[in-house]
Structures are given as structure tokens and as C-alpha cells.
């Protein structure tokens, strides 16, 4: 049985450390942080009907054109936290991702692009090209 290569994850970076406006448009300014702590707190305090809909309904991302959805069977806190992280990573321009290979400075706003770069450029079968040489 061939073993499945495990590739390293992109490194998440904050591109902005200044407070950012709430993406739900309420005007609140929130600390920029990748684990979305202040966003989680704000969403559950100020946007409770949205982030904690009745158990029978899915939580839908309200951002235009976004199809992200969080099913009702998922736990409340988990839903709010995952939703907050989604807002920070996908709807606020404050996060980017970096290739973890030593000496490589490749960065992109999208983690899937960095994953593609990791698998196609800097790592072969999960082993760093620089380390393998
Ligand atoms: Zn808000
Ligand atoms: Zn969204
Ligand atoms: Zn790289």
C-alpha cells in the first residue's frame, strides 16, 4: 500500500494589525487577529440573531455572493467561531498565507493557492525540495 504524502500547511500571516470594520456593516471596529477572538465576541454580542439562528435553520454568510453555510446541527459556539474565522480570512483583507519552505518567500491571500504552490513547487511527496537535496 503506497503511503500518502503529508504536506505542510501554509503559514497564516496578518497583513494588517490595525482595527478593522465589522464586515456585517454595523460600524464597529474590531481588533485584527487571525484567530478571530474579538470577532467571535462581537458577533455573539451584537449580531446574535444572525450568528445564532433557530436550531432548525442553517447560518448563512450574509456577504454578497458568498455561499458559505453552517448547518444547524453544528454546535452554537463552533458555528459562531467558524463563521468569524471565515469573515476574517475570506471577507476582510487582513490575512495572507506563506509557503513554509525555508528560504521561500511565496505569499498569497488564498490558502488554496499556497497549498497548490507547496505541492507543485517547494515540496515533493511531502518532503521539502531544499531539504531533499
Ligand atoms: Zn458588527
Ligand atoms: Zn462569506
Ligand atoms: Zn515555496
How would you describe this structure to a colleague?
The protein has 133 residues and is α+β, with helices and mostly antiparallel strands. It has two domains: 17-91, no CATH class; 96-132. The chain has five helices and nine strands, in the order E-E-E-H-H-E-E-H-E-E-H-E-E-H. The protein has helices at 37-46, 48-51, 76-91, 111-122, 129-132; strands spanning 11-14, 20-21, 29-30, 59-60, 69-70, 95-98, 107-108, 123-124, 127-128. Strands 1-6-7 form a three-stranded antiparallel sheet, covered by helices on one side. A two-stranded antiparallel sheet has the order 2-3. Strands 4-5 form a two-stranded antiparallel ribbon. The longest helix has 16 residues, at 76-91. It is globular, with a radius of gyration of 18 Å.
What's the short version?
With 133 residues, the chain is of the alpha+beta class. The protein has helices at residues 37-46, 48-51, 76-91, 111-122, 129-132, and strands spanning 11-14, 20-21, 29-30, 59-60, 69-70, 95-98, 107-108, 123-124, 127-128.
**Multimerization status:** single chain
pLDDT under 50 segments (min length 5)? none
Number of strands: 9
Helix content: 25-40%
Strand content: 15-25%
Q: Could you say how many structural domains there are in total? A: 2
Q: Ions, cofactors, ligands: which are bound? A: zinc ion
Provide the spatial order of strands within the biggest beta sheet: 1-6-7
- Helix/strand class: alpha+beta
How many helices in DSSP terms? 5
Q: What's the main sheet like?
A: 3 strands, antiparallel
Q: State mean pLDDT (0 to 100 scale).
A: 88
What global shape is seen? globular
Q: Please state the CA-atom Rg, rounded to the nearest Å.
A: 18 Å
Helix-strand topology string: EEEHHEEHEEHEEH
Q: How far apart, in Å, are the first and last alpha carbons?
A: 26 Å
Amino acid at each position: 500500500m503506497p503511503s500518502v504524502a503529508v504536506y505542510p500547511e501554509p503559514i497564516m500571516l496578518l497583513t494588517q494589525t490595525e482595527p478593522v470594520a465589522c464586515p456585517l456593516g454595523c460600524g464597529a471596529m474590531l481588533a485584527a487577529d487571525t484567530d478571530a477572538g474579538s470577532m467571535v465576541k462581537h458577533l455573539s454580542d451584537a449580531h446574535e440573531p444572525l450568528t445564532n439562528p433557530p436550531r432548525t435553520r442553517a447560518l448563512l454568510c450574509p456577504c454578497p455572493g458568498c455561499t458559505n453555510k453552517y448547518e444547524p446541527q453544528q454546535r452554537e459556539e463552533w458555528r459562531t467561531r467558524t463563521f468569524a474565522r471565515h469573515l476574517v480570512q475570506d471577507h476582510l483583507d487582513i490575512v495572507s498565507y506563506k509557503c513554509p519552505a525555508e528560504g521561500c518567500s511565496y505569499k498569497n491571500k488564498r490558502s488554496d493557492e499556497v497549498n497548490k504552490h507547496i505541492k507543485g513547487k517547494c515540496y515533493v511527496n511531502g518532503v521539502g525540495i531544499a531539504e531533499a537535496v
